[in-house]
Design brief:
The protein contains 13 helices and nine strands. The protein is an alpha/beta fold and 357 residues long. The structure holds ligand G3I.
Length: 357
């Protein structure tokens, strides 16, 4: 469990403190259902993190039971928790192709889509204005394999409010409205699959960068890129994936554009690590160490969030898991809320990062 002298929580080491020591915000996604019902989980968050984001409760679907109503209870609960603990709060997300409400397809048309989008951002962004560190305004709008021009995803929003410009209308409207509604929040374009050295990742990086450049050319408000960082300890072919040169070149270009970078949803799946728990944890920890050790070298990277903090609630165990049927261990704390070697590696990487100004 961890490396000597590192594996304690409580008054001891914390991800938050390690980050704060370098001027980096460090935290995780939170399940509000677990926050309400699991006191040990709540205590761990209070001890460990300085920035939080709702895993689901700020998304369009969960917030919008019907075209005319909002459900804010869970989002309010997390906002109050963050405020009570002096934590920064992220918003995730205003626009996404998934977790849209059942009524969306039958109700949203090319005629009313812009009004639906603007009124959603006004209501949600307005409610938490001044309390949000950064909003994922648009999430995962690039999907090169969909075959649309410039690699855009053929999403429900693209269908009803896409347009033909270099920046789809829904993206422009979302960012402009978010800036108007909450001028203090950093506005983020968030995506996955840009981390690797494979051809698919390179193509996705190119399309994401073309979107960011086009947004700047059109003076559409934008402050940062969110790199989700759902990565693997070992690939299906048994080899350890390389994350670095392509990603760092993108981060450097983003920095030169005057933008920041956030690691928004990190986890390291051990789906293909064929070994016993100790060796699996070491493989996961080595990837936390090398990935964060590399990415945090660039001072444009201002925050690191893992997608959850304990294996007890990771989404990865809801997806296609390990062949041996055992649960994945992708996060800094295991299912018993005990620190793993990944916790040590994350704290060490934060400690070792160049201090932010
Ligand atoms: O809340 C309902 C509950 O009422 C119902 O009983 C239950 C059974 O159907 O479903 C619950 O909703 C689930 C929700 O998580 C809350 O637990 C949805 O079915 C389930 O699809 C949803 O999964 C979330 C997923 O996004 C949706 O696409 C995961 O928790 C969440 O970790 C995941 O997060 C995404 C990021 O937002 C964007 N990047 C990738 C990341 C992983 O897919």
């Amino acid at each position: 469990m961890g490396l000597p002298g590192f594996a304690q929580t409580g008054a001891g080491l914390s991800i938050r403190a390690a980050g704060a020591g370098r001027g980096i915000l460090a935290g995780c996604a939170v399940s509000v259902r677990a926050l309400r019902s699991d006191a040990a989980y709540k205590k761990l968050l209070e001890e460990q993190v300085g920035i939080v984001v709702a895993e689901n409760e700020f998304k369009f679907g969960p917030l919008r039971p019907s075209p005319t109503t909002f459900f804010f209870d869970d989002a309010d609960y997390l906002a109050a928790f963050a405020e009570a603990n002096g934590m920064k709060l992220r918003g995730h997300n205003f626009v996404w192709h998934r977790q849209l409400p059942k009524w969306f397809d039958g109700y949203v048309t090319p005629t009313n889509a812009e009004q639906v989008l603007v009124s959603h951002i006004e209501a949600v962004g307005g409610r938490y204005a001044g309390k949000i560190h950064s909003w994922d305004v648009v999430n995962e709008a690039i999907q090169v394999s969909d075959g649309l021009p410039d690699g855009f995803r053929d999403s429900p929003w693209q269908k009803v409010l896409g347009g033909t410009g270099a920046v789809p209308r829904y993206i422009e409207v979302a960012f402009r409205t978010a800036r108007r509604v909450d001028p203090k929040a950093l506005l983020v374009y968030n995506d996955y699959g840009v981390e690797g050295e494979d051809e698919g990742s390179a193509k996705k990086r190119a399309a994401v960068m073309e979107l960011l450049r086009a947004m700047q050319r059109q003076k559409i408000p934008l402050d940062a890129l969110g790199v989700q960082s759902h990565i693997s300890a070992v690939n299906k072919d048994g080899r350890v994936p390389v994350y670095g040169p392509g990603l760092m070149a993108m981060i450097a270009e983003v920095r030169k554009m005057g933008l920041k970078v956030l690691v928004t949803e990190m986890d390291v799946n051990d789906r293909y690590v064929a070994a016993e728990v100790g060796a699996r944890d070491l493989a996961v920890a080595q990837m936390y160490g090398s990935y964060l050790g590399t990415v945090l070298q660039d001072r444009a990277v201002i925050a690191v969030l893992t997608w959850g903090i304990t294996d007890k609630y990771t989404w990865l165990n809801g997806e296609d898991s390990r062949a041996d049927g055992t649960a994945e261990r992708p996060l800094p704390f295991d299912a018993a809320l005990q620190p793993t070697a990944a916790f040590t590696a994350e704290v060490r990487a934060l400690d070792g990062a160049p201090a932010r100004d």
